[in-house]
Every structure is written in C-alpha cells, then in structure tokens.
Amino acid sequence: MWVAPLPHDSLVNLIAHDSRSTRLMHPPAKLASHRKDTALKWADLAVKPNFSWPNVQVELSFEGRKIVLQPITDELSCTVSVFDDHEITFEEGGTILSRFLSRLAWSMGSGIVELFICGSNNPARPGRLGRGTYEKSGWALVDPWDYLYLPSANNPNADLALALFREGLSINSVPFSFLSYFKVLNILFSGGYAQESWINANLNRVSYPPAHERLLELAKSECDIGAYLFRQGRCAVAHANGTPLVNPDSYGDKRRLELDLPLIKELSTLCIEQEMGVLSESSFWKYLRENNTETPELLKKIVSIDGRITYVTMEEYAQ
Predict the structure, then answer these.
(1) Pairwise CA distance, residues 124 & 219, whole Å
(2) Fewer CB in a 10 Å sphere around the end CB: N or C, the chain?
C-alpha cells in the first residue's frame, strides 16, 4: 500500500487486512516524490462528509471506473476509492475522486473534506484506512440512498464550477468560502463590471429565504448590490493592499460576510444552473416530476443476492 504524507500516528493506524495487499511504507519526504508516478490498482481517499454517508459499502461507476464508498468505523476512516484494472497513479486517482466528490457534494448540498490519500493493489477490494487523529464527521451513517442524483457536468466550465462550489461548501473559513462561490462567476465573466452586471440582472431569481432576506436588507442601504458584493466582498477578501478589505481579526468584517454568504452562495448556484446547465438537486427532481423521463444522471440502488450494493442507471436497471 502506497501512502501519501500523513501525520505519524495516522501512518501507524493504516490497516492492510490480507497478504494480497501490497503495503509499502516510506518516509513522507520520499512519498511526495513517488506519489505522482506510482502505479496502483486502487486510489483510496479518506474523507469527512458534511452529510449522511452510507452505513455499508456501496459501488457505482463514474467516468468508466469503479467507485467504492466505505463507512467510518471505530478504527477506519470514511473512504472513497477508485479502481483501475490496469493501473492508476495518485494524480489520476486523486483527480477522479475529487471530481466525483464535487458532483456528490453538489447533489447533497453540503461539503466534504479530503483528509489524506493512499493506494492499494488488492484487486478484490479497496484499501481500508485508519482514522488516526483526524476529526470525524458529525453526521450519522444512514442506509444507502434508494436513488442518487449524480450530475454529469461534462464540460470544463461546469467541472471547474462544481469544484469551486464544493470548496465553498467545505472550507472552514467564511471569507474564503465567499471567495470560492464568487469565483464561479469569474469562470464566465472575466471583468468586475461583467460580474456585477450579471449579479444585478439575476437578483430577481433569488428565492432561497436566507439569501432573499439578506438581499432585502442590503437593498435598504446599497443601490448597486452587484458592485457591493464584488468590491466589499470579493475584492476585499482577495486583496490586502487597499480599501475596502476584510481583516480576519475584525469581528464586524467577519459578521458582515457571514450575513452575505447565503446570498453569494445562491447566486453561485444560479450561475451553475442557468449558465452551465447543471441542475441543483431540487431542480433535478422537479424536472423529473414534470417530464416523466429517464436520465443517466439518476442512479438506482440494487442489492444482489450476496448483499452487495451497487448503483446503476435506470436504463441498466430496466435490463
């Protein structure tokens, strides 16, 4: 098992359960140089989801590869793994897993934090990663979802937008969460004026109650909401040489951004939906109800005789 850099106690807690797993332990400094080109069967990523995770192992296909989700236990981390029968490197596997997690986070409407990545070579099963001292998720495990919406987002702009959106959902910093959501707009609109104009043109679409309440409050003092969010939000967070700026030690600055966060998050969601064609979870289910159609983005749980749980498309299920 190849292991990416970890705290020492996490290295000790990694678990290999049978002789078919190749477990190769290297000092972290050497691992950093090997990680990119090391060929493996599995890339295994320990994660901390901010939503309920399946309480048993489940499998599904993503971008032509097998993805496996494993639940947290008293000893093992909550893990997502990708398998390639030929070989996969940490860079390839880590990228595929991150892309998958960004779609899952979008579907669930909550973040997921990546903890550390490892690798294994037992073709029969993914690696099992020790918990170490990492903080565990506060969300309970649940029975596997009956259905799962996993958006395709099959263009570079949508891919990047979902990655930035997951970053905004997951990061433990209000200013940088705000910046991640705002960067979604920057994918399509390079200049500040274009971003401000798009915001102002789409304020009438804001319906999420906390975002709408903040919008009404800002309208009492700000005549140009787009300019306010760009200059006193995006620019104030990104730059420290000039005014306005957000001081991490200023409670007033942090409190203002906390109040603005639901609004920029809602605008980011609208941009991904309206401009990039990736439906939010609520919009997706509304679309299915109104059109009564099948889509490869909807996966259904099936349970085999041996208890193995797999997610397949509705077309595959019908066969």
Answers:
(1) 59
(2) C
CB contact at 8 A, 129 and 14? yes
Using an 8 Å Cβ cutoff, are 162 and 280 in contact?
Answer: no
Buried b / exposed e over 140-158, threshold 16 CB at 10 Å, is ebeebbeebbbbebeeebb
Q: What CA–CA distance (Å, rounded) separates 249 from 129?
A: 37
Residues 116-155 pLDDT 10s: 999 999 999 999 999 888 888 889 999 999 999 999 877 9
Phi, psi of 146 (to 5 degrees): -70, -40
Give the Cα separation of 110 and 51 in Å (integer): 6
Helices and strands in the chain: count of H runs, count of E runs: 12, 8
List the structure tokens of 285.
Answer: 């289910």
- How many residues make up the chain in this entry? 319
What pLDDT digit, counting tens, does each position of 158-207 carry? 999 999 999 999 999 999 999 999 999 999 999 999 999 999 999 999 99
Full-model pTM: 0.87
Q: Which of 76, 115, 107, 91 is nearest to 43 (CA)?
A: 91
